[in-house]
Every structure is written in C-alpha cells, then in structure tokens.
Amino acid sequence: MATPKILVVDDQPINVQLLKRKLEREGMTVVAAYSGQEALNLISADKPDLILLDVMMPDMDGLEVCQRLQAEPETKSIPIIFITARTTKEGKIEGLGVGAVDYITKPIDLDETLARVQTQLRFVQINRELVDLQRRLGDSRRAATIGAVTQGIAHNLNNLLGVVIGYVDLIKAYHDKPELVKKNSQHLEDAVNRIVGIIKQLTTLVVRNRPPLIRASLARMIDSGIRRYQIEYKIDQPVSVQHGAGEVLIETNVELLEEVIAKLVMNAWESYGEGAPPDQRSVSIRTEVVEKPQEGRFALIHIEDRGRGIDPEIRDHAFEPFTSTKHTVGVGMGLTIARHSMRNLGGEVTLSDRQGGGAICTIRHPLERRNRQPA
C-alpha cells in the first residue's frame, strides 16, 4: 500500500498537532482541517484513505460531515473514526449509526489512536485487494467466456460448412436428377440458415446497451411469444397458460421479451426428445407476482414441461454458450441468449427441476425500475 493519507478534522489546533505528529512518525501523510466545511472542501479536492473526525465542532458538527460523506458514492467508502468527548452508550451508537467505523474518546490516547488507525488501514487495504481480485476474476470469466464462445463458433461453423460442402458435392454429382437436386438444395438451404442463425445470435450477445422500453401487457406478450414460437418453429400444438399474476403492465422491450418466451417454450418442447409424438409434449406457462426484500416486485413467468428433465451432464453449464445434449450442429445458444436478454432488461432466467418430472424455466422481470443501467 502507498503512503496512507489521513485527514484530521478538529477545531482545536492542539489536538490536530498531537495527532499529526504521532501519525507522521509512523510514516503517514497527515492533512489538517479545522472545520466541517474545510474538511469537505479538502476531501472533494483529494480523497484521504481515512478520516479522524471530531464530533463537537461549531457551525457543522462531525455527525453532519459524516452524513454528507455517506450520501455521496465517491466518498461513502472512506472510513471515518469519530473523536468524541461523549462517553455514553447512546452517544457512541449515534456516531456509529451515521456511518462511522470506530470512535475514540477524549482525552485522546495517542497509542490507542494509532492502533485503531492502523487497524482501519488494514481493512482499507484488504478491501482494495478484494476489489482488484474481483476485477481480475471478472476479466478471467470474460476471457473464459470468449474462449468458450470462440471454440463453440469454430466447432459449429466448421461442422455446418462441412455439411454445406457435402450437399454442394451431392448437387454436382446428381445434377441430372432434378428430384435429388431439389432435396439436397433444401438441405443446403437449411444448413446456411443455421449459419445465419448463429451469426444473428452472436450479434444479440454483443449488444450491451439497454433496449428501449415501453409499458405493455404481460398477458398479451406471453400470447404473442407463443404465436411467434408456433410460427417460427412450425408447431401447431397449443400451450396452456394460467395468468396467476392477473392483468399486469410491465416496462419492457416487447420484441426482446417475446423472443425470449418463444425460445424457452421451444426448449420445453424439445425436452421430450425427437421420438415423442406432438400430442404428448405438454408445455404450460403460469405467471405470478412476487416481492423480494431490498429488491422490489417482480413478475415471474414459469415455463414448464414434463420432458426428460435437466441432464446432469449439463446442469451446471446449461446457460453457457453451445451447451446442448442434442447432437445437431448449430444449437446450444437458446438459454445463453435468453439469460443475456433478460439481464439487459434488469431480470433473470433460471432453470430448476419440476416435481414429478420435467423442468421449469423461470423468467423474472422487474415491475419497478430502480436502476436504469444495463445489466
């Protein structure tokens, strides 16, 4: 840690000089302020690592200074040790209640003060190391995700290009047989469309800005998402819906939410396996509204199936790119895209086992906007 910078705030110059001399002998840089406003001005210009703050000062006392610092994100994390003549339990609790990390009672014991300052500086250093560690872990996760996506892209596109080349060769070999040419051309077109689909999904992952939001009916968006699923994937089987949440309006991006619903309903349909007849592939949706302490109210959209359940081999990696139990190339991005899209809307997508068999995929969408920043 670089030389720690301590701000001592006290309207009594003798107290400031005693503390300054003691701390400087221990290799610390000490800046002095003799009023609350002067302290705020100094902190605004150059933030210290720790503040020793007298409680009883004219004009602006230490409690108000502390409250102002706690109200600003830039200064909220600076540890404050109160210097107080109050020895009552209530006085100490009041100081700790406004955000101080510790207190020192007058008359000041310099050795005790030094020990308390050094303890808090160690906490500051630990917090900085944790922040740096979290940043490096985030970089590592991003690098790992990029590696997984890149490897998945290469594997899937190479396989699909192999399929394309194979059908092109077949078309050349059977150019004089129109029926075979037509059949292989259709397979070729399907493979090309899968390549286009991968590129489209990757473009969705790259977009990080929050999409434009409007207020819309949750029930209507669910119905539209089901229609999109039926049209896009050419499936006529109905999806049962229970609107437990009632008529709820949410602030969302309609296009994005409908696409997520369509993708997750398709995942539920595919959970039964290729051999299952359509009339035995039950997919249902139910909604509810929940309230989470400190977080707010959310609409939950539960998409349920009675299929094979969550494969243990992919349970811990279901939301990673190109994770799938299907052996067809060009798949495995549905859950990844869905979670990414919902996080950009301030929500989440989770996967859990359904009692009695199958799985439940839950979309959580906020009903109240408390943070407008991108997820």
UniProtKB/TrEMBL annotation:
Protein name: histidine kinase
PROSITE patterns: HIS_KIN, RESPONSE_REGULATORY
Domain of life: Bacteria
Domain Histidine kinase: 152-369
A GO MF label: DNA binding
Catalytic reactions on record: ATP + protein L-histidine = ADP + protein N-phospho-L-histidine
Keyword Secreted attached: no
CDD domains reported for this sequence: HisKA (cd00082), REC_PA4781-like (cd19920)
InterPro entries cross-referenced by the UniProt entry: CheY-like_superfamily (IPR011006), HATPase_C_sf (IPR036890), HATPase_dom (IPR003594), His_kinase_dom (IPR005467), HisK_dim/P_dom (IPR003661), HisK_dim/P_sf (IPR036097), Sig_transdc_His_kin-like_C (IPR004358), Sig_transdc_resp-reg_receiver (IPR001789)
Modified residues (4-aspartylphosphate): 54
Pfam family, one: HATPase_c
Cited SUPFAM superfamilies: ATPase domain of HSP90 chaperone/DNA topoisomerase II/histidine kinase, CheY-like, Homodimeric domain of signal transducing histidine kinase
Keywords: DNA-binding, Kinase, Phosphoprotein, Transcription, Transcription regulation, Transferase, Two-component regulatory system
Domain Response regulatory: 5-121
EC numbers: 2.7.13.3
Family annotation (Gene3D superfamilies): 1.10.287.130, 3.40.50.2300, Histidine kinase-like ATPase, C-terminal domain (3.30.565.10)
